[in-house]
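Late entry, evening session. Most of the bench is empty. Finally got around to the prediction I had been postponing all week. Sequence below, unchanged from the version circulated by S.P.
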Amino acid sequence: MRKQLILFLSSVILLLGTPLAGVILEGDSVASFLTFPPKTTPVTHEDFSILVFVLIAAFVIAILTPFAIRIFRSQQDDKNKHRDIKKFPAWGWIGIVLLIAGWIFAWSRFPWFEKFQLFTFTPLWLAYIIIINALMYMRAGKSLITHSPGYLVLLFLFSAVFWWYYEYLNQFVNNWYYTDLDHLSDLGYFLYATLPFSTVLPAVMSTWLFLRTFPRLSSGLSHFLKIRIVRTRTFWWVILFGNVLGLGLAYLWPEYLFPLIWIAPMLIIASVISIAGKRTILHSLEKGNWRDIFLLAIAAIICGFFWEMWNYFSYAKWEYSIPFVHRYLIFEMPVLGYLGYLPFGIQCGLIGMEINKLTQTDLDYS
């Protein structure tokens, strides 16, 4: 227990303190970054650059192409086993009804519903979580709702804190901001935001478990590129130092280092855990097992699509300001902005797996 407490405190200090170090280096006051709840306002960033856009797109395509080739070539060797598909559960229909009603109220502007208009995002995601678990139950015969409710409750609780941390980080790079919320008090804003924030981890983890019931989606990735170096402490010390440095400098050069808010927290947490001699989901790469990491990234992209879609016509919503690539929007998000969901999904998985250590839940739903 003492070791776990030290790991937790070390991670918290690094995750919260590192960005503030950049503020201190710049000679600015940290006071405004310590207010709660954290809020951001629109900031003008560097204009769109077709060169940067093409370079980033080419880089990502180069990384993803080997995975696509591996999956395609492994299809014949990894066919789906016969599944006893169950009937869609009755409680899943509750989710569908909630989704339809929530969607109508979220995108409509009924005068009599005005007082509740701000709170329409949460029902949509509760409905999504119910439906994705119902679909999971059809394919696997179990779901988080029916077989791991304690773990699901913990995901909701930790998720609120988890996303508030990203709101904290956004103060240093100002990549998104919320509209039509100025009339809320700090307490009102906290209550309004915490409810939908609590659905992030349950949504991503549920989607990941659902995707695991389709083996062909990640064919061949259980035995792919082996990265032996992940088992060495020296490697994790280097990763820790590099990401602490990068996250600290993000405030000084937000135009160039803003992607680190999606990457550095994951690697800092993984580094602290690994240096302490514990294993994380990233250690599966030692044996060339990329399956869960790949599916977590895809799960976040799927959730990201629904986040951005339901946000588009919401009364109170978020908008983006992203340097160099702010063009070709899908809803409010620039197309390349969706790439941030890839590492974010892995971060969700890392946290979700650590939470699972508290419940020892069997997450083998494949």
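Two things to note before I forget:
The chain has 13 helices and four strands.
The chain has a mean pLDDT of 92.
Will write this up properly tomorrow.
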